[in-house]
Specification:
The chain has 572 residues and is α/β, with parallel strands linked by helices. It is built from 21 helices and 18 strands. Helix 8 crosses helix 10 and helix 8 packs across helix 15. It starts with a helix and ends with a helix. The relative contact order is 0.10.
Length: 572
């Protein structure tokens, strides 16, 4: 019995240490704390995610305005993006895409106060047809550097046989005015729109400067004005009911004989043509030689939008440029820019060749000037140049004689004349043709031919004797009235260093005879370039004034003389 009590006590002394138990308890508590912390963290993250999904700041709409060419694809992509539940700055975003012609949207965005009745809700993101048209938002500014969403070259849409004929001839953009006004005219429709604007800019661009952006100075030069005017005037023969690209393409497709159709070609984007050809329509693209105008559809995030809308616009553009957007745009016939531009698969009647070079974007003023010329085209001029070759024209001016200076300036000026204008070249002094003080070197006729004939003859002329200005002006003016044409402005251009020294006609008699020779039904201007401030300059000013002409006093050595003569002998 005593041993039993001793054994029991021994077992109690050998039991689990209290310290070990305490350690275990502490570890269990720590484990529970860690598990609890993770649970709290996960719950907090879930609550944060739920709060985000719940749009703490509410809902917001991303307003997008796009040219009709891209609006449908952007609308589909907007719906897809919205379905993914985008949250921007704690706002749930819904995308609303409005289709508005680029010119309409540009005008609305350029206005001091935006008018939603013109182009829909004021956008945070604008996707116009091309960068040239985007100048309208210059005052508003953009939040990020604009980049192309998609691109599409501008081409001429035509029946396959017409396109093949143009391609075989190797025609350039600058050849279009001549093709449109030839005996067998191209009959090019010019409906209002981005493709037409790009075509007109290409036509106005001199091949010598085609790699540089068109400037307003070059866009308003006589050569550019003449080219654009010729094309615009020829387009007026197209039926008035063909008001847009779709109507023009319909006319081409429906014509039994494409070469006899009232419209044989129309500026379009490659994408517009691709969609028609995919529908089975017999159309083809003609790509004129030279830099290719491009509908580059930039994405413009407008700085006037609120921060949430701007951030949403940037995220939507990222989505549009991702794989779903690229696939959607390629399927719609667009080219998709990137490290290497993706192009749609070729189809019968339309391939998608590499474009090089791309035409540079014109300045905003140049584009506006070209469109202004097309809206109010100048008609080809008929000008009789009457050049003083009296003895005083032998005077040295700037290292050469006045006559030599004028000869050189005339050569430069007439080289830029349009092919459908008329030119005559006369000289005068005294007794140059029997008793007459003047001689006709080239009668009024096609500009290029008359300029060549007249300048060739002028190269052998040396300064003569007296200056019978009044008698010669009256003879040239009466001839211009007699040979008047309704096609465009008519003028006589007097180039003289004066003064008149033929006393057979007084200044007052000269002015009266000039008034008697005028015919209100056949208006002819008298323009005067005076190479010296002659004593009879006031009489010449009166003569020019009563016919609506100009008087310009300049030196024969002035580098601007050629430009002056070009302006006064060109379409206006």
């Amino acid at each position: 019995m005593g041993n039993h009590r001793r054994d029991h006590a021994e077992r109690r002394r050998r039991g689990v240490s209290r310290g070990v138990v305490a350690t275990v308890v502490v570890l269990l508590l720590l484990a529970a704390a860690v598990v609890g912390w993770f649970a709290v963290r996960d719950r907090s993250a879930e609550e944060a995610e739920q709060a985000a999904r719940a749009c703490v700041e509410g809902e917001a709409t991303l307003a997008v305005t796009a040219d009709p060419d891209v609006a449908d694809v952007l609308r589909t992509l907007g719906e897809s993006w919205t379905a993914g539940g985008p949250v921007v700055r704690d706002h749930c975003i819904t995308t609303a895409v409005t289709a508005a012609p680029t010119a309409v949207a540009a005008e609305a965005l350029a206005a001091t106060t935006y008018d939603p009745s013109a182009a829909g809700p004021e956008p945070a993101l604008w996707v116009p047809s091309d960068t040239a048209a985007a100048a309208a938002v210059a005052a508003r500014g953009t939040d990020i550097t604009p980049r192309s969403v998609v691109t599409s070259p501008v081409v001429l849409g035509a029946a396959p046989t017409v396109a093949d004929g143009l391609a075989a001839a190797g025609s350039r953009w600058t050849d279009l005015p001549a093709l449109a006004s030839s005996a067998d005219p191209l009959r090019l429709a010019l409906p209002t729109g981005p493709a037409t604007a790009a075509t007109l800019v290409a036509v106005a661009t001199d091949p010598g400067t085609e790699t540089q952006p068109l400037t307003v100075d070059r866009a308003t030069s006589p050569a550019a004005v003449s080219a654009v005017s010729r094309l615009a005037l020829a387009a007026r023969d197209v039926p008035a009911d063909i008001a847009d690209v779709d109507a023009a393409l319909d006319t081409i497709v429906r014509a039994p004989d494409p070469t006899a159709a009232p419209v044989r070609a129309v500026p379009v984007t490659e994408q517009q043509l691709a969609m028609r050809i995919r529908e089975g329509q017999q159309l083809a693209a003609f790509r004129p030689a030279g830099p290719t105008p491009m509908a580059d559809h930039p994405g413009l995030v407008l700085a006037t939008a609120d921060p949430t809308a701007r951030a949403a616009a940037a995220e939507f553009l990222d989505y549009v440029r991702s794989a779903p957007g690229r696939e959607a745009f390629l399927a719609a016939g667009f080219r998709v820019p990137g490290e290497s531009t993706d192009t749609p698969d070729p189809i019968v009647g339309l391939d998608f060749p590499a474009v090089d070079p791309v035409a540079p974007v014109p300045t905003a003023d140049a584009r506006a000037a070209v469109l202004g010329t097309a809206a109010e085209p100048s008609r080809p001029a008929s000008t009789t140049v009457l050049l003083d070759v009296s003895g005083s024209m032998e005077s040295i001016d700037g290292g050469s004689t006045r006559l030599d200076n004028v000869r050189a300036a005339l050569g430069q000026a007439t080289g830029a004349l349009s092919g459908d204008g008329r030119l005559g070249v006369w000289i005068y002094s005294r007794g140059l043709d029997g008793s007459r003080p003047y001689r006709v070197l080239a009668p009024l006729g096609p500009s290029a031919e008359s300029a060549r004939t007249g300048l060739d003859a002028l190269s052998g002329i040396t300064p003569q004797t007296a200056t019978s200005t009044y008698a010669s002006v009256l003879a040239a003016y009466r001839s211009a009235v007699e040979n008047w044409s309704p096609d465009g402005p008519q003028s006589v251009l007097l180039v003289t260093d004066g003064p008149n020294d033929d006393t057979s006609i007084s200044p007052s008699s000269f002015l009266q005879s000039l008034a008697d020779a005028a015919d209100p039904a056949r208006p002819v201007r008298l323009d005067v370039v005076s190479l010296a401030d002659a004593s009879d300059i006031d009489t010449l000013r009166s003569a020019a004034g009563q016919t609506g002409g100009d008087v310009i006093v300049t030196a024969s050595s002035d580098p601007g003389l050629a430009g002056t003569l070009e302006r006064l002998t060109s379409a206006r």
